[in-house]
Each structure stands twice: as C-alpha cells, then as structure tokens.
Amino acid sequence: MLAAALDRPPVMLRLDVPADVETKLVSHRVVRAGGQPAVVAGGVARAQALHFPTAPGTAGHARQAHAWFYLPGLRGLHGLPGFAPRADELPPLMVLLYGGPTSHAGPAYSTTAQFWTTRGYAVVDLNQGGSSGYGRAYRERLRGQ
C-alpha cells in the first residue's frame, strides 16, 4: 500500500495481516521510501483546510469550494536562508490546479507546495468543482460541461 504523511514524502508499505486480526497484531515494513524531505527539520509547511463560497448553482443554491492552504516557511531548502515578505506586505500566492476533474488534492506532503513555501510563497491547492472527496453533488458539478 502507499502511505502518506503530512511532513514527509510517501512510502510503499507491505502489510502482513493475520487471519485472526482480533487477537494478533498487523505488522508492516517499508518496501520503498519516497526519500527524505528536502526541507530542514521544523520547516515543513502543513496543509490547512480551506472552504469558501462560490457562485450559486443553476438552481440558485449557495455553494462552496475546497482547497488546501500552505503558509510560507521562514526556513529555506537544505538550511539555506528562507524568504519572507516585508512587514508591510503579504506573501505572493501560488495557486495549484490539477488535471482533474475526478481526482483531488489532499493534505499529504507535497514537494511542489514545499518548494514554493520555502521560498516565501503561500500556496493554495484547489479542489475545484468536479473533484472527488466532497460528496457526489460536488463531484458532479461539471457534468455535461
């Protein structure tokens, strides 16, 4: 199975599930690791869930969209100095869109988000209408379009 974490790249695991799961422990071993995070310890930007209103649907019902938001880090890649906006300005924002429509972005470690946040950018990974993970009505928003 593939297992993802919030603060490091995914790994491939082998799970050994005994026939009598209730009385025996499930064990695992890492078959292949996705590498080490390229970000210094404590510098990993963690995804925060965002929900925001969007244009009403065809029947005039209120709708919302979903995204994952990453704040920029103040520590740089491999210990290099980080980047931060001046005190009187907000950081630039990078908006990520995937090729969807029936997939979704999740909160797991993202090398793309880490690349930009270590350079002072805020990142939004958008799950536009049509994305999976938010119910059937959300997934079918793009049907016929």
Helix and strand topology:
Elements: E1 2-3, E2 11-16, E3 27-33, E4 48-54, E5 63-70, E6 93-96, H1 111-117, E7 122-127, H2 136-139
Parallel strand pairs: 6-7
Antiparallel strand pairs: 1-2, 2-3, 4-5, 5-7
Q: How would you characterize this protein structure?
A:
The protein is mainly beta and 145 residues long. It folds into two domains: 1-36, no CATH class; 39-142, Rossmann fold (3-Layer(aba) Sandwich), CATH 3.40.50. The protein is 8% helix and 28% strand. The strands form two sheets. Strands 4-5-7-6 form a four-stranded mixed beta sheet, with helices on one face. A hairpin with an 8-residue loop joins strand 4 (48-54) and strand 5 (63-70). The two termini are 35 Å apart.
Features:
mainly beta
Order of strands in the sheet with the most strands? 4-5-7-6
CATH architecture of the largest domain: 3-Layer(aba) Sandwich
Shape: flat
CATH topology of the largest domain: Rossmann fold
Note the run of SSEs as H and E.
EEEEEEHEH
CATH C-level of the largest domain: Alpha Beta
Structural class: mainly beta
Low-pLDDT stretches: 75-80
Q: Percentage of helical residues?
A: under 10%
Radius of gyration: 19 Å
Largest sheet: 4 strands, mixed
Number of domains: 2
CATH superfamily of the largest domain: Alpha/Beta hydrolase fold, catalytic domain
Report strand %.
25-35%
- Mean pLDDT metric: 77
- How many DSSP-defined strands? 7
Ends apart, CA distance between termini:
35 Å
Count the helices. How many? 2
